[in-house]
Q: What sequence folds into this?
């Protein structure tokens, strides 16, 4: 490997990152840059460390007692593992959407208002209403739920729940959005909706998406990183990776030899 | 979707003063919350420590006893017993009939003055009697025999006591007549009206017999019903009813089981009062649901993939259960059983209802003999007139706690040892 | 032959049946492929030997004493028996005891007279029973044995038998519930035939010292007991147990290092393992007087040393691990995706706990608290030893209060006159307590079930 | 199965006041005969004890009843109806209902009428409002009335009603004696009912706890059997009633108003089949003298004549004549 | 649809099978034939009913209280849902391998010996040893484990565990082997081993394999059935299905439009 695709000033940059679960190494010396207004896809067989690496980007790995990260990860040039880094703010700036939609068991409104409330982003109730409406609109959900904002978020369909989670994430006005297989629990129609949404959002955020569906990676991303057994095998422009991979392993994977 | 519909928003300035202040407040709240949690845990622990310490502090004295070296001049007593009587079964009756008790009292008066009889325990003469039985030649000579001191003297020797006892103890100590030692009687004796002669073995044996019945009944029935409910029962009214009854029985106040035992076992089946068999039956009904629930959870925790695997190679349901599920669930079932048994061992209220609240000075030999159990013994001693029982009560509590803690520790050990994550 | 000897004999026969059937099946397996394993054939035969014989023995154990009794009553020696039924059955029972064990002395001379007759009949029926049981065992065994053949599905039959045994075991729970309900109901019915149920349930004066013959309900109004029970068990105890239990659970599950949790959690469980009689002793001797002194110090000279507060506090401590383990379960049942979701938004741990986890776990926590309440109001020894018997309705925790369970113990072990409404009142109180805890549990279990389903 | 159980130990039920004495005799009984099972003694209370005692003859039923009051005619009849008719009644000694306070207490001196006014639920027919001792009698100190006593179901409470409250009530209210015959309900309500508020604290059967609570609460007065007072003489002292202090001497001579006789009742028909029962009775008779072990346990020996009569009853096995009961 | 590919006498044949979970229909009128010496692959998006249908073939659905099957399934012409069918024997004849390797927590030897033991297939200990060795050999595991037959089956690696499960299944000498995504939890190397094993076993058994990996289906199977929303969309010779699907939905799925 594999100089990361060069960018002037990347939004996030990781250098020589290793992650361990206890004694087991899950990520081995990964360096990668993530840019604004770009969708970066992580692909690779199951267990190769995609999720693990994704979670290092907003320090969600802190919640796993055995996990240990070393190397350097910078957001706008600032080291996010520095001791004076405020995790709470970091996570507000780097939002996350999970594999299984996980709306809180509260109303739709409360789900979206949760982040702004805890961070004190809304000055007034009207302000909060506006944020909620904006976020839901951006997540393409406003039309479907505007008449039932007080229904429980868990009562929505799977695809709607996932969009609700996206709305929840963008309500705190993040700069980066991390998505871990956001469509793997959804049916084809809902998947299509989310993919469309990713397209739209791309203009405002840096988006990182983990997927096991190569067609999806090809459809939504501009850059693709292929992981295997904890290492980053190849990272480059999506169209190139899919049509003309430089590594044998990448090719085998893309053509379905394994995984 | 239409991007024109997406309004713009001003980005949040995370470095703003107000934001920073807010963050600091949130972290302060976080610390407070965490501190509250720690305080709750620590206070609970402190309470436990205080409880244990109180019991230890007031109960340790119960394991020791103060003794008086009593000089006895047997020939002068002129006891009317013939040596050949002493070898036979009637020795006790013969010695008692010969007025040994009064003679010992008189010897104490002679040795320690007018209140001499008050410094030795009421059962001191029994010690003398045992000594004579062990060595009949004593009757023909003088001897000094160490007998238990009266409770007041023991109190004076180990802590605070009435002034006259303090004085008497000081006098005895000055005369070198006071010794102390480990109170074996406490571990080997049965209930007594005399605190220096009272022991817990009778109650402990009652507890053991009771637990035997409880375990023998509750364990098999509990395990079998757990298996039935978890592995076989169809979902219908009947099994719902069984399930609801079991869950409710687990939470029915224990005293209600006492009322049940009183009405059914004593009232209807005319079983003997105060008997370990009745206590055991009552407690078995009480802890059976505990075992069923623990058993069900243990059975449920066996991953379905194991059942699938066995079914997949053509095992029948009984084979699945007895070859795979039960062996894997056993540690969990045992844990639940031990916890249930610990609960039964510490239970008092239902046994009061079925007559185990009795003065029983001989340890039980059979399941139908009258018996008490350890916690009831504690309850009875806490109400004793004689003050010497205060420390006996705490000492008995220590013994009970040792048993219970051991059982709980075993359960926790089993749980940690066999807690498998599949 | 004695019952237990017969039992062992039948078991022995079953073992023989098992061995021969298995041997036969093994032999058959040489000629054709067996449907079931030889051992399963063995079990089939063993079941047929043992189960009919056991069922018969159980029935016979109930029937034969009655037959023997009829026989004895018909004998000429029975002519002199008193006509009074109670005395008569006492004499008969004694005669039987002597018949079985001639070394016993007799309370009644007549019993001694009847004993030989009884012995004759007992022996006769014992032999008849033995014969029938053995006959059944052999017949069952022979029938089962005759069915052994390669295509015979012994396994299916055995499994059905096992299933039946399991079913019977699980019915014990229902029988116990019925037994409790029946015994309480029977005595309570007698009570309510003396004291109107309305007076008992809604009367506000409880003072069983003198029960008036003309208006027995006037002094047996249980409201003060219900109040005391509620005040001690559901208010004071919970005021201790809920905050401590919840915060402990939260600390141990969300904050504490795994090593701390591994040590501290069992320590908390020890609090639940301490027998209630110890808590009672502790409450009565240490906590009660201390609370009284405190109350006097803050200007309440009438404070009682058996205050509701003393019993309630100690009870609350006892319940802490109960609440904490229920809360622990409820928190664990909230999918970790909720927690991750909230943390990923930038919420702090405490915000996540109080705004997401607790609301989500609330139904489970509430159910746990309901169960804890039912536990507290059924708790007996602490109140027997530390609460007073005075039935007053007071909001002051330093006043004394009494509870249903304490009154049950007092009424049944006190010096009441026999068959008086006082004694029967204990059963009526027991019934009420049973019904209340039953309802609490049903509600709690419903809540738990509903909310578990929500996450499944 | 009914009644099929053999029994080789003596079963005793009844009063918790007599319990310590009977257990003492039981222990002596066993000390002499270690091969014998010790008697099994339950402190059920007199009333509940009578219920069990009178349920019938035979191994399932107790042999001896401890009673801190005499059997009533109605109870005897109920016994007889169950076949329990030949009963030996033995008075074993005396006990006093003692009033006691902590040595640090205010040194009260009470009259029976003071106690009645302080303790009755409706003294003179009106609800009791007294809070301080000075409210019932200006001569008494201004100390809150706070009495710790036995529960309503206890025999000590019966004795309190019968020996203290009823006489005081009759002395204060002339009509009361008449109510006793014609309107017992009214008599009970006005004369013997004890107040339910905080002034009387019902402290359960556990007399020993009462002692310890008195120690912690010097202004309170405890009510319990004399033996408890004697055992704790270093911490407590008796409150004089009508000028008479509860002491061994005043109770045994009957000068102290709260003295009451203690009984045991024995089923004559159990004497033969229950091994050792007769020996046990003999041991009892040997223990109740003024210098016997029971007195050391706090019992008050009955007057010589009563002891002699009781010993004669034990020796001859004379059964109770129901006509002598009320 | 979709006459099942015609065969003279299929090993198993399903006709008009419907499966319901409570009121919900999971399989809708599926007819299919499975032949000896053939590998049949079931493919389709998640939740389309592949596993459900597979489990009807050895009546593993009986263990789900709410499941109800109608239609007709025959094994060698015998109706397996007939009331006199002995399920235990059926399952011995139609073995099953599951998605997650599920060895019993017993020794390797006991894992394999379990089936022969309960069915009384071994006359002696030596016989049993022989069966165990044969089965492990056929499952390609003998070489790796022969020296540690007494180790616990759960101590093996994932791929070894899965092969152990296959050995366990073939130890009772089944005629049909059903495999439900047997490789989805495995790494590429283990997957390759299992695929190879399937190739070898094919000669002796009728094999049905569920997979979400189309390349795998293409590699190992001779026939492929494509399920969608509980119906059998297309069933035919594998090479044809992948190169020249007759149905639009099949084509969309194979080219990664959804799933
Ligand atoms: N909490 C954990 N503790 C220990 N090991 C873990 C933990 N989480 C993941 N792992 C291990 O780390 C490795 C990488 O896991 P990760 O979840 O990042 O893979 P992934 O690429 O996201 O896979 P998938 O496509 O299945 O989601 C795996 O081997 C996994 O078993
Ligand atoms: N036990 C069950 N109870 C109720 N519904 C079920 C059950 N099992 C499966 N289903 C439903 O039946 C449908 C078919 O499920 P099935 O597991 O057969 O799908 P699948 O094709 O195997 O999917 P996957 O590729 O995810 O394994 C799904 O909608 C599923 O939700
Ligand atoms: Mg992942
Ligand atoms: Mg599936």
A:
């Amino acid at each position: 490997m594999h100089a990361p695709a060069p960018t002037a000033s990347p939004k996030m940059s990781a250098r020589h990152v290793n992650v361990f679960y206890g004694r087991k190494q899950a990520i081995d010396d990964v360096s990668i840059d993530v840019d604004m207004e770009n969708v970066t896809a992580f692909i690779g067989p199951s267990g190769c460390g995609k999720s693990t690496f994704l979670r290092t980007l907003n320090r969600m790995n802190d919640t796993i007692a055995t996990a240990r990260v070393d190397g350097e990860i910078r957001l706008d040039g600032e080291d996010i593992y520095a001791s004076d880094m405020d995790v709470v703010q970091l996570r507000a700036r780097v939002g996350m959407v999970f594999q299984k939609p996980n709306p809180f068991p509260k109303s739709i409104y409360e789900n979206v208002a949760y982040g702004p409330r805890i961070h004190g982003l809304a000055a007034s109730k009207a302000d909060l209403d506006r944020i909620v409406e904006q976020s839901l609109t951006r997540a393409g959900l406003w039309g479907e739920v505007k008449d039932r904002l007080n229904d429980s978020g868990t009562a929505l369909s799977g695809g709607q729940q996932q969009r609700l989670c996206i709305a929840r994430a963008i309500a705190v006005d993040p700069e980066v959005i991390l998505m871990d297989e956001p469509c793997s629990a959804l049916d084809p129609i809902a998947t299509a909706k989310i993919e469309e949404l990713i397209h739209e959002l791309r203009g405002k955020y840096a988006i990182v998406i983990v997927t096991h569906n190569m067609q999806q990676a090809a459809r939504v991303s501009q850059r693709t990183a292929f992981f295997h057994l904890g290492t980053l095998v190849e990272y480059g422009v999506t169209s190139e990776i899919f049509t003309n991979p430089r590594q044998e392993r990448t090719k085998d994977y893309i053509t379905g030899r394994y995984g | 979707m239409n991007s024109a519909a997406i309004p713009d928003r001003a980005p949040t300035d995370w470095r703003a003063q107000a934001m920073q202040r807010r963050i600091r407040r949130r972290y302060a709240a976080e610390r407070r919350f965490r501190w509250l949690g720690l305080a709750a845990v620590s206070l609970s622990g402190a309470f436990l420590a205080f409880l244990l310490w109180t019991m230890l502090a007031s109960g340790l004295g119960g394991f020791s006893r103060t003794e008086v070296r009593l000089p006895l001049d047997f020939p002068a007593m002129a006891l009317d017993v013939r040596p050949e009587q002493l070898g036979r079964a009637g020795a006790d009756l013969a010695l008692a009939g010969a007025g040994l008790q009064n003679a010992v009292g008189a010897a104490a008066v002679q040795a320690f003055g007018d209140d001499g009889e008050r410094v030795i325990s009421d059962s001191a003469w029994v010690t003398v009697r045992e000594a004579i039985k062990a060595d009949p030649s004593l009757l023909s000579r003088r001897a000094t025999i160490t007998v238990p001191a009266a409770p007041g003297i023991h109190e004076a020797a180990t802590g605070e006591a009435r002034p006259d006892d303090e004085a008497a103890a000081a006098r005895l100590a000055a005369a070198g007549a006071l010794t102390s030692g480990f109170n074996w009687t406490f571990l080997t004796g049965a209930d007594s009206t005399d605190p220096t002669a009272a022991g817990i073995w009778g109650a402990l044996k009652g507890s053991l017999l009771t637990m035997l019945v409880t375990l023998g009944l509750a364990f098999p029935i509990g395990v079998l019903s757990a298996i039935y409910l978890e592995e076989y029962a169809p979902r219908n009214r009947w099994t719902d009813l069984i399930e609801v009854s079991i869950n409710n029985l687990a939470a029915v106040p224990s005293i209600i089981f006492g009322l049940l035992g009183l009405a059914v076992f004593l009232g209807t089946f005319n079983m003997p009062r105060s008997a370990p068999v009745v206590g055991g039956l009552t407690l078995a009904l009480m802890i059976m649901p505990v075992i069923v629930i623990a058993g069900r959870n243990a059975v449920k925790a066996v991953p379905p993939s194991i059942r699938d695997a066995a079914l997949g190679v053509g095992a029948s349901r009984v084979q699945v259960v007895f070859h795979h599920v039960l062996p894997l669930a056993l540690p969990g079932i045992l844990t639940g059983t031990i916890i249930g048994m610990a609960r039964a061992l510490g239970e008092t209220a239902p046994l009061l209802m079925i007559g185990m609240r009795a003065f029983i000075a001989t340890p039980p030999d059979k399941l139908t003999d009258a018996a008490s159990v350890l916690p009831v013994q504690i309850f009875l001693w806490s109400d004793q007139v004689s003050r010497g029982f205060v420390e006996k009560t705490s000492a008995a509590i220590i013994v009970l706690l040792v048993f219970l803690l051991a059982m709980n520790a075993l359960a926790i050990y089993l749980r940690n040892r066999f807690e498998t994550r599949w | 032959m004695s019952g237990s000897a017969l039992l062992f004999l039948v078991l022995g026969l079953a073992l023989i049946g098992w061995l021969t059937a298995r041997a036969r099946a093994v032999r058959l397996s040489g000629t054709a492929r067996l449907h079931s394993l030889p051992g399963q054939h063995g079990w089939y035969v063993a079941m047929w030997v043992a189960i009919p014989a056991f069922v018969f023995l159980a029935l016979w154990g109930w029937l034969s004493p009655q037959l023997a009794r009829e026989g004895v009553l018909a004998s000429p020696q029975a002519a002199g028996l008193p006509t009074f039924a109670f005395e008569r059955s006492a004499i008969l029972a004694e005669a039987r005891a002597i018949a079985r064990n001639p070394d016993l002395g007799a309370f009644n001379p007549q019993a001694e007279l009847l004993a030989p007759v009884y012995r004759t009949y007992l022996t006769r029926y014992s032999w008849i029973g033995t014969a029938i049981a053995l006959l059944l065992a052999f017949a069952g065994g022979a029938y089962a044995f005759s069915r052994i053949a390669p295509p015979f599905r012994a396994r299916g039959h055995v499994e059905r038998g096992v299933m039946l045994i399991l079913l019977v075991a699980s019915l014990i729970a229902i029988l116990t519930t019925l037994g409790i309900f029946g015994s309480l109901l029977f005595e309570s019915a007698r009570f309510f035939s003396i004291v109107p149920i309305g007076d008992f349930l809604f009367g506000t004066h409880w003072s069983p010292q003198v029960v008036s013959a003309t208006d027995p309900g006037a002094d047996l109004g249980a409201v003060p007991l219900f109040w005391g029970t509620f005040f001690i068990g559901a208010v004071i105890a919970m005021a201790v147990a809920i905050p401590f239990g919840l915060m402990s659970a939260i600390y141990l599950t969300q904050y504490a290092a795994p090593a701390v949790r591994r040590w501290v959690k069992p320590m908390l469980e020890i609090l639940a393992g301490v027998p209630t009689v110890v808590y009672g002793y502790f409450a009565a001797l240490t906590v009660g007087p201390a609370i009284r002194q405190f109350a006097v110090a803050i200007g309440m000279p009438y404070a009682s040393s058996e205050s509701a507060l003393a019993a309630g506090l100690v009870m609350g401590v006892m319940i802490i691990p109960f609440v904490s383990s229920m809360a622990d379960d409820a928190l664990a049942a909230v999918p970790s995706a909720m927690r991750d979701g909230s943390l990923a938004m930038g919420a702090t741990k405490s915000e996540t706990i109080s705004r997401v986890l607790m609301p989500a776990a609330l139904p489970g926590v509430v159910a746990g608290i309901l169960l804890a309440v039912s536990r507290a109001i059924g708790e007996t020894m602490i109140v027997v030893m530390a609460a007073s018997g005075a039935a007053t309705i007071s909001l002051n925790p330093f006043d004394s209060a009494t509870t249903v369970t304490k009154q049950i113990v007092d009424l049944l072990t006190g010096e009441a006159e026999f068959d008086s409404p006082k004694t029967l009142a204990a059963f009526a109180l027991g019934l009420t307590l049973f019904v209340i805890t039953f309802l609490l549990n049903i509600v709690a279990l419903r809540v738990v079930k509903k909310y578990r389903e929500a996450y499944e | 199965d009914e009644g099929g159980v053999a029994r080789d130990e003596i079963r005793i039920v009844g009063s918790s006041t007599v319990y310590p004495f009977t257990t003492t005799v039981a222990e002596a009984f066993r000390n002499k005969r270690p091969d014998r099972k010790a008697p099994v003694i339950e402190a059920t209370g007199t009333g509940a004890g009578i219920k069990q005692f009178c349920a019938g003859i035979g191994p399932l039923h107790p042999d001896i009843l401890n009673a801190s009051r005499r059997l009533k005619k109605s109870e005897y009849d109920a016994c007889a109806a169950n076949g329990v008719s030949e009963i030996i009644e033995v008075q074993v000694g005396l006990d006093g209902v003692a009033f006691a306070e902590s040595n640090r207490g205010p040194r009260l001196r009470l009259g029976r009428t003071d106690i009645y006014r302080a303790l009755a639920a409706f003294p003179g027919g009106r609800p009791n409002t007294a809070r301080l001792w000075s409210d019932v009698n200006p001569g008494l100190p201004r100390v809150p009335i706070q009495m710790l006593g036995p529960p309503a179901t206890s025999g000590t409470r019966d004795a309190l009603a019968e020996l203290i409250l009823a006489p005081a009530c009759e002395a204060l209210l002339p009509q009361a004696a008449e109510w006793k015959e014609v309107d017992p309900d009214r008599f009970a309500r006005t004369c013997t009912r004890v107040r339910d508020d905080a002034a009387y604290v019902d402290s359960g059967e556990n007399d020993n706890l009462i002692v310890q609570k008195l120690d912690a609460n010097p202004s309170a007065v405890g009510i319990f059997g004399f033996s408890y007072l004697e055992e704790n003489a270093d911490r407590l002292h008796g409150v004089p009633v009508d000028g008479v202090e509860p002491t061994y001497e005043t109770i045994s001579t009957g000068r102290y108003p709260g003295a009451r006789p203690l009984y045991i009742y024995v089923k004559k028909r159990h004497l033969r089949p229950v091994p050792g029962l007769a020996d046990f009775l003999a041991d009892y008779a040997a223990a109740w003298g003024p210098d016997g072990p029971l007195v050391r346990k706090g019992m008050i020996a009955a007057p010589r004549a009563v002891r002699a009569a009781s010993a004669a009853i034990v020796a001859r096995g004379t059964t109770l004549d129901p006509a002598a009961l009320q």
